[in-house]
Amino acid sequence: MLTTALPPTRPTRSSLPRLFDTVADTINLAGGLPDPELFPSIDISDAMRSMLRLGGRTLLQYSTYRMPDALAAAIAGAMEFRGASVNAAHLIPTAGSQNGLLTVALAFAGSGATVLCETPIYPGAAAAFRTAGLHTVAVESDREGPTPESIRTVAADVRRTGGRPVLLYTNPTFHNPTGRSLSADRRGDIVEAAASAELTVIEDDPYALLSFPGVTIDNRTAPTLHSLDPQRVIHLGTFSKILAPGLRCGWIESPAALADELRTVAEITTLSPAPLAQATVGRYYAKHGWLDLVDAFRTVYARRAALMDTQLAERLDQGEWEWQSPRGGFYIWLRRRNGYPTASVVEHAAAQGVSVVGGSHFSLADEHADGIRLSFSHVPDGSVVEAVTRFAAGVTAARADETERAVS
Amino acid sequence: MLTTALPPTRPTRSSLPRLFDTVADTINLAGGLPDPELFPSIDISDAMRSMLRLGGRTLLQYSTYRMPDALAAAIAGAMEFRGASVNAAHLIPTAGSQNGLLTVALAFAGSGATVLCETPIYPGAAAAFRTAGLHTVAVESDREGPTPESIRTVAADVRRTGGRPVLLYTNPTFHNPTGRSLSADRRGDIVEAAASAELTVIEDDPYALLSFPGVTIDNRTAPTLHSLDPQRVIHLGTFSKILAPGLRCGWIESPAALADELRTVAEITTLSPAPLAQATVGRYYAKHGWLDLVDAFRTVYARRAALMDTQLAERLDQGEWEWQSPRGGFYIWLRRRNGYPTASVVEHAAAQGVSVVGGSHFSLADEHADGIRLSFSHVPDGSVVEAVTRFAAGVTAARADETERAVS
User: Fold this and answer.
1) Contact B62/A246, CB-based, under 8 Å?
2) Which of A145, A294, B184, B392 is geometrically suited to a Cys-Cys bond with B315, CB 3.0 to 4.6 A?
């Protein structure tokens, strides 16, 4: 019924890969999940309890999309790590970054609007843009991320062919899925390119605080794009990677001129934020700050990333596979040097008992089929060796298949 | 920047009236808010605490859009009051009904799709449809709600003029803002009319359990539209009116053929539901059931509705104003018999210290300007008399203005 109702010209909406599902006897390297062992569940429980017991019934009532002071302080505290100051008047609460992405997409939706996307791309971003009816087009990236030249060229191409380039989407720090980060210089260049092409930039920044110990990501090495051009860049942040995703709390820091519109659309997506969850974030921050918790996450992820990196180096043929050693975030992005698609590797890895995500999931049009994303954030230390062993067995099996097919 | 980027043909997105804001020295009859005194905040706090302390870290992790068993049981328990059984396989969790509305709207969005709307209409529904890029068109209603004839006629008109009528939106029981309910017969007729016009029906049903003591709303007097035609009707439910809105938990019960698509779109709106909130609803229900809590809400609202009804009858000129005495829900809908717009009444009432909502907020195209919505659910008993006194003073002042203008 639904299908017949859809006109053929409608942009395709990608669905999200099923990353959070758990499968028996399988080690999950697929989901971009934080390590739940580090969630401060007792502190969260205590915060909720004392607020509700102290008469916080308004925390169970509908709420408004004005940013609560305690949450604004928690956001400012998180952005301080990046050396970025925050204007509370332009902060809009979201039910997580994905909700923020859809909000921005819907605010800009209209016939013919196009969003320029770095690829590989977080699938939730592509899905949000398409669900909102925006057109998507890829810009080229190098080892850091999107190139300013490509932004200019693609915007001009879209315009020349009658399109309306309006937005640029990027995840500039510890990018999902590649782990790459834009240098300070490149950040300036990208914002400049966006300005010359009259694009509003969506800076999707969930992983930026998760630099590994010894890796400096601050305002000097990697300023937020928003701080470089507050009137052009929409910054999306979340507490899902530095506290607990289940609270569903994130934020948009908006250019002044867009704040009212984005607040209106955010309200239309859910009517009301969850005030208890917001207050819990605020109270956690007021009591504990972010430093210890974020350091705990960084330390654990750095250890697992190093372990996985070493294991991959030992077990994979580096004539066949290449990757960058991660410096932060959740992911290792493998690519086959020969450009072969990895779909068969993903299948064989699953048969060996390890789930990973094929590169096509991060594409706009089936590019990056030679990639594979491995998530190290969520797999217990003790399972990393086993996971990579299984994965390598999957690679071997896939290659045997491929050789056979090539021969026969 | 945003404004210039929007093409002139884009459907207007209405924003929501600012109902949940609190203003000093003002009694709020504007917001459709449940009474927070009845929120079982200690039980909720205890449920959260014990689940988190018992090792429920997965409740703070990302979750999936599969319906948890405990939540499905809580939904089934709520729908039992209506005599409706629930198919758990077709239940999709939402962050409240509004999130469900946007999800449905986005799933059906595409060039030219039109949703037929009963009016006056809940502003969040109109805003969701327009934000998704759907066209909206009014169908006529009588004292019960939308008429089958109008559904047929309007769908045919839209089709004849090249449009694509796809959806019918209705809030059939204790309707916001009028309080009216469809009879059993009318429900059958409407579903039939929708079928003949090939429309999928959105049944937005947040208030259905809040019948006042003595008022029977069950499967015989008012079956859910969904139960009458499960393959045609999308049912939207919420725990916001029978437990606590701040948990942001609701659901979609979908026709089988649409369930996968709606689940996919729901995921794109927020990536993950809030598992702690969902588990809290499930645990509350498992321990307490809904009966006592819902009865407490019904009793309190019935008392306030009766008080407000009596006060209005005493203080308003019934030659000028008409309304139905509410039988459930949150609202009294006043209309001026002479058809005069109420904007001036709303303003004068605010000046007297009581906030109400003018009828135009519930319109698609400025119809219903002669209406005013009063919310009795949220105002403490002791304030009802004072609230109506202030409102009546506002009416008198507005009328003086109008008379003066008419004379001069």
Assistant:
1) yes
2) B392
Give the E-state strand segments of A224-330 in sequence order. Answer: 233-238, 250-253, 321-322
Residues of chain B with CATH 3.40.640.10: 41-288
Q: Do B42 and A53 touch (CB under 8 A)?
A: yes
Contact B132, B105 (CB under 8 A): yes
B33-69 pLDDT tens trace: 999 999 999 999 999 999 999 888 999 999 999 999 9
Which helix (H) or strand (E) element contains residue A117?
strand A113-118
Contact A41 B52 (CB under 8 A): yes
* Total Cβ atoms within 10 A of residue A171: 30
Mean pLDDT of B276-289: 98
Name the token pair of B200: 């999928």
Across the interface, do A258 and B10 touch by the CB < 8 Å criterion? no
CATH number of the structural domain B41-288 = 3.40.640.10
Indicate the CATH number of A2-39+292-407 among 3.30.70.2740, 3.40.50.720, 3.90.1150.10, 3.40.140.10. Answer: 3.90.1150.10
- Nearest by CB to residue B261, choosing from A2, A111, A112, is A2
DSSP at A146: B
Closest chain A residue by Cα to residue B64: A20
Phi, psi of B121 (to 5 degrees): -125, 145
CB contact under 8 A, A45 and B52: yes
- SS3 of A406, please? helix
Report the greatest alpha carbon distance in chain A. 74
Q: Which chain B residues have a beta carbon less than 8 Å from that of A268?
A: 13, 15-16, 98, 102, 124, 127-128, 131
Chain B residues with CB inside 8 Å of A53's CB? 41-42, 45
CA geometry: angle A106, A109, A115, nearest 5 deg:
100
Cα–Cα distance measured from residue B268 to residue A16, given in angstroms and rounded to the nearest whole number: 8
Query: CA of B60: which chain A residue's CA is closest?
Result: A246
Higher pLDDT pick, B5 / A277: A277
Task: Look at residue B22 and tell me whether its pLDDT is greater than 90.
Answer: no
Is residue B12 predicted with pLDDT exceeding 80? no
Domain span(s) for CATH 3.90.1150.10 in chain A: 2-39+292-407
CB B96 within 8 A of CB A248: no
Q: Average per-residue pLDDT in chain B?
A: 93
Q: Which of A60, A106, A277 sits opposite B131 (nearest CB)?
A: A106
Stretches where chain A sits below pLDDT 50 are 1-12
Sequence-distant (6+) residues with CB within 8 A of A115 are A105, A108, A129, A134, A135, A136, A137, A166, A167, A168, A169, A202
CA B264-B202-B165 angle, 5° bins: 95
Residue A121 near residue A169, CB atoms below 8 Å: yes
Find the residue in B nearest to A32 (Cα): B62
Cα–Cα distance, A239 to A64 (Å, whole number) = 19
pLDDT value at position A5? 35
Task: Give the contacts of B351 (CB within 8 A, at least 6 positions apart).
Answer: B394, B397
- C-alpha torsion angle, residues B327, B332, B335, B337 (rounded to 10): 50
Q: What phi, psi does A386 have (nearest 5°)?
A: -60, -40
**Is-contact B151 B116, C-beta < 8 A?**
yes
* pLDDT single digits (tens) B323-360: 999 999 999 999 999 999 999 999 999 999 999 999 99
Interface confidence: ipTM more than 0.90: yes
pLDDT band at B5 (very low <50, low <70, confident <90, very high): very low
**For residue A276, which of B63, B249, B99 has the smallest C-alpha distance?**
B249
> What mean pLDDT do residues B373-379 have?
96
Greatest C-alpha distance within chain B? 74
